[in-house]
Design brief:
13% strand; 53% helix
Length: 246
């Protein structure tokens, strides 16, 4: 029996290595994980921008807010504040009930297993697709593949991001508060277009002061660079002979 289990496990490992070779370096592993999370954020962003105002959009938005709230509560268990220790059991029980209710809500979505491939790396990735189309449906191009996205697909993408604690990668534009974007750098990726970026900072109180200061600093850098590149004065040539030796 033990031999049969060992053979089965070996076959499973060979199958997994065949469809999804294990990363050989830490960099390759991080790159693969980043590809999956960025793809999930991209699918969610495209669908949210295309379906604004629909009932499906409202349902997905509620799921996104609930995931963020649950994540924030989960963080309090990792770093509890002293003032919460007295009611710790109540907070934990309330979180458990809320989490169970959320899972009950997710049970309305049905999925089937599926593989998708990447030609540039020759690998497969395992995932799930919705068993039946639900809500608004769009098609997008992701890494050369045309993917059909519906409400259930976006829910699955948000769940993957929440599980990796990267839900921040899907966010609204800070300026118009209407368009969604993929955020890889939380402190920098805030706007969906250059126009929104300029409009946002133009409305800030200290924008003109900061812009003037930046322009002055830029001109100073140009002056320093010009002085550094200016050719030095020619050195005074000394006669190659000694006048006294003549």
């Amino acid at each position: 029996m033990a031999t049969r289990n060992a053979v089965t496990e070996t076959r499973k490992r060979k199958f997994v290595d065949a469809i999804a070779p294990r990363p050989r370096t830490q960099t390759e592993y991080k790159r693969r994980v980043q590809f999956i999370t960025n793809s999930s954020a991209f699918l969610a962003k495209e669908w949210l921008n295309a379906t604004e105002g629909t009932p499906a959009y409202g349902r997905v938005l509620k799921v996104l807010h609930e995931l963020r709230n649950l994540g924030e509560t989960l963080d309090t268990f990792r770093k509890p504040r002293p003032g919460l220790l007295a009611e710790w059991d109540e907070i934990r029980d309330r979180f458990r009930r809320r989490h169970n209710a959320f899972n009950e809500f997710l049970s309305r979505y049905a999925y089937v297993p599926a593989l998708h491939y990447r030609l540039e790396t020759g690998t497969w990735h395992f995932g799930t697709v919705s068993a039946r189309r639900r809500g608004s449906v769009i098609k997008v191009n992701d890494s050369g593949l045309t993917i059909t996205i519906d409400e259930a697909t976006v829910i699955a993408a948000l769940l993957r991001l929440a599980a990796s604690r990267e839900l921040y990668k899907v966010r609204l534009c800070e300026n118009c508060r209407k368009r969604w974007l993929v955020c890889n750098r939380p402190t920098l990726d805030k706007f969906h277009s250059q126009k929104c970026r300029e409009n946002f900072y133009a409305k800030s109180r200290d924008y003109h002061d900061r812009k003037a200061a930046n322009q002055q600093a830029y001109r100073e850098r140009l002056k320093r660079r010009a002085r550094a590149e200016r050719p030095k004065c020619a050195m005074t040539l000394q006669p190659p002979w000694n006048e006294q030796s003549r």
